[in-house]
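Run log, item B.
One chain of 153 residues. Sequence copied directly from the ordering sheet:
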Amino acid sequence: MISISSHGIEHLPVTEEEARRAAGYALDRAGQSSMDVLITASSSGVTRFAGSRIIQNTVRREVRAYVRVARGDRRASASTNQLDAGHMNDAARRALERALVARPDPHWPGLPDPREVGRAGGLFRFDETTAQMPPAARARGVAEIVRAAGGDN
């Protein structure tokens, strides 16, 4: 199952359609095993200052897929940061192989069945004002914080 919020999604390095397609690549390999796929995506920015000047502005966009497999009372997982068919199939294969040799856990209740527990909603932390703030505006904000803290940098 995949759940992605649409709020602010234009800032993410993956679309909902791409995430669903990627999860499908892995889920197609489940066979008789239980499998779930979690895809996370983020976009974050950092502005570095020295001598009260911006010296570096960096934006990092990341995506990660986690494939979790349960075979009876054995479970394992694998991850990848590439959502193409080859990498997703490889993550599913690795999780399936690891589950075969995993130590049995007689207390493992198994993966939740969406028909019994429902489907999870997306968890999305996003602030549009912060996302749209240019480096100079961030610099003014940092300067205000430094002044309020009694700094002179």
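Observations after the first pass:
- The two ends are 49 Å apart (CA to CA).
- Helices lie at 16-27, 85-101, 114-117, 128-132, 135-148.
Flagged for discussion on Thursday.
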